[in-house]
Amino acid sequence: MQKLTRIITLSVALTVVSGCSYVGVYKRDIPQGNLVTQEMVSQLQPGMTQEQVVYVMGRPLLEAPFDASQWDYVFRVDKAYGGVEQRRVTLAFDPQGRLANIEQEGDLSQALPIDVDSNMGPATEGSNPMLMQPDESTQNVAPISTQPASQL
Q1: The dihedral sign for the CA sequence 37, 40, 45, 50
Q2: What gap in Å lies between CA 47 and CA 40, rounded to an integer?
Q3: Which of 5, 23, 76, 133 falls 20 to 30 Å from 127 in CA-CA distance?
């Protein structure tokens, strides 16, 4: 009888403990692809060259492997406690490499549900990464000596 009581108590305790670990799971939004906004798409005009489009939109996420006349810009956010939001802009170019057609999917006018920290991530194109280094006075790191170890 005592053995049965211990087994049932242990089973209930393990069930309760394993169930508690699910409550504290942290999830976060996962953005993927090209950042696509309505402001970017509104700058596109038919007749623009591919270089001009790259300047406005950046390099496309997908280029058709057998036909370089179609570029796809896809942005997808997998929301932690919700659904998936997807935006897609497909650009078609004529044989001379000029923008001919713009197709949009998704609501580009909505604000993006991502937090952007200006201090994190890669440096922006054209900026000097050495000027973006943290100030030495804010770091608690001893300076590195340039003298050989034999002279120290």
Answers
A1: negative
A2: 16
A3: 76
DSSP track, 1-43: -HHHHHHHHHHHHHHHHHHHHHHT-----EEEE----HHHHHT
What token pair was written down for 11?
Answer: 């089973």
The pLDDT of residue 100 is 92
Q: Which CATH architecture has domain 28-107?
A: 2-Layer Sandwich (3.30)
Residues 93 and 32: their CA atoms lie apart, in Å, by 25
- Rg of the chain, C-alpha, whole Å: 27
Handedness of CA 57, 61, 64, 65 (dihedral sign): positive
Quote the CA–CA distance of 55 and 150 in Å, as a whole number: 52
Alpha helices, DSSP H, located in the chain: 2-23, 38-42, 50-57
Q: For 74-119, what is each residue's pLDDT tens digit?
A: 888 888 777 888 889 999 999 888 999 999 888 877 776 565 554 4
Give the whole-angstrom CA distance, residue 57 versus residue 39. 10
Domain spans, the chain: 28-107
**What are the Cα distances from residue 130, in Å, to 27, 117, 126, 135, 138?**
35, 19, 12, 11, 16
